[in-house]
């Protein structure tokens, strides 16, 4: 706080009490002036701050709108790409599935042919084995009949 000095002629006319009262009045006026300047400056600062915050909010809202638009565009692009890739994968999967079905069908047909050939060979071998067995059975039976006939002739001849 500044020191207020009252000039001597004024001090002599006002006296000691008047001088002290004048100094108190001037100090009070200065303090009131200081308080009103601070209030005005604070008010202006708050107004300016509110304006700047409003501008900042508007800029942020605009930037957010642009960002949302960009994000929405990118998302739609990604959806299109995803859809295209999904369709490509479906086509590839379908082609691979069809190829596998064809291969499976070919292998199944090969196995059926091999199984049929094997079965036919086994049947032929079984028929040959049966014919051979029947042939040997006839040889055995004829041998048995010959032996029995020989025994019967020897037995009844006596």
Topology:
Elements: H1 8-157
Describe the structure.
With 158 residues, this protein is mostly helical. 95% of the residues lie in helices and 0% in strands. It is built from one helix and no strands. The longest helix has 150 residues, at 8-157. It is rod-shaped, with a radius of gyration of 62 Å.
The stretches of 5 or more residues where confidence is low (pLDDT under 50) are none
| Count of discrete alpha- or pi-helical segments spanning 4 or more residues | 1
Structural class: mainly alpha
Strand portion: under 5%
Main sheet makeup: none
If you compute it from the alpha carbons, what radius of gyration comes out, rounded to the nearest whole angstrom?
Answer: 62 Å
The SSE string, one letter per element, is H
- What would you call the shape? rod-shaped
The number of strands is: 0
C-alpha end-to-end distance: 175 Å
Residue share in helix: over 70%
Overall pLDDT metric: 92
Brief descriptors of the model:
158 residues, mainly alpha, 1 helix, 95% helix, rod-shaped
Question: Summed up, what is this model?
Answer:
By secondary structure, the protein is mainly α. The protein has one helix spanning 8-157.
